[in-house]
User: What shape does this take?
Amino acid sequence: MLVQRIAAASSCRAGLVLSLALLVFPAQALAQEREPRRVRIAIGPELSPSFPGASGVSFGPFLEGDIARGDAPFEFEAPDESFGLPVLNLGGIEMGPAMGFQRKRKEDAAGPGLPEVDLTVELGGFVQAFITPNVRLRADIRHGVNGHEALVGEASADWVARDGDRWLISLGPRVAFGGARYHRTYFGVSPDDAEASGLPVFTVGSGVQSVGGTAGFIRQLDRRWSLHGYARYDRLLGDAAKSPIVREHGARNQFSGGLALSYTFGRGVR
Assistant: This one.
């Protein structure tokens, strides 16, 4: 599902980026421990839907964190993917934990009489692989540990062109999925909700929630500073698109994007 990064979770995410990186990378870098390490942190504003199916957007933080050693360029990460670190590599297929956030939907935000959904932390895993030097496939699945307490997932493909760390362009499709409980939370209308909101009762199931695409770029400005940006579009499908919440108060077209400035730390900066 579309990752909605949240201002209230920015410090949590930034801390986890650094903490998990420090836990995982020492084990991966034993063979190259003498190589200088570079750490790149990007911070900036991001606009994304206020909640799934919303007609409006909200500001939040656009955060990225990367680590590289020696002359190796930073590994590619799509700007809209959930946070994750590869901990297992099986013949070029990488797997690891994944984490995402879902914004809080305030009471009545999706329409009068509709309930609040708390800010959600989503935990799960991902698998990814470069099937050619320029094409990466990725899939991740997560479950809300609070808030919506439901299953979400996304499949993506990215075509990547780059010149080391000097510049990078990526472009690719996205397909987002939601479990039945997730769709009920954001797109369903229970009898109680119908009575409070005036909307018709609407029963939903699991399946594809949206299809869309993302374009991203990174441009190195000098030895330490870089500019990062992305734009994403999603079109709601199926039960999500048919929901009276979306039809009356929301929008099938979902837009998001962000712009960030990064700084690279470390002795190995070229």
About this structure: The longest helix spans residues 10-28. The helical segments are 10-28, 180-187, 191-197, 238-242, 244-249. Residues 7-265 form a domain with the Porin fold (CATH 2.40.160).
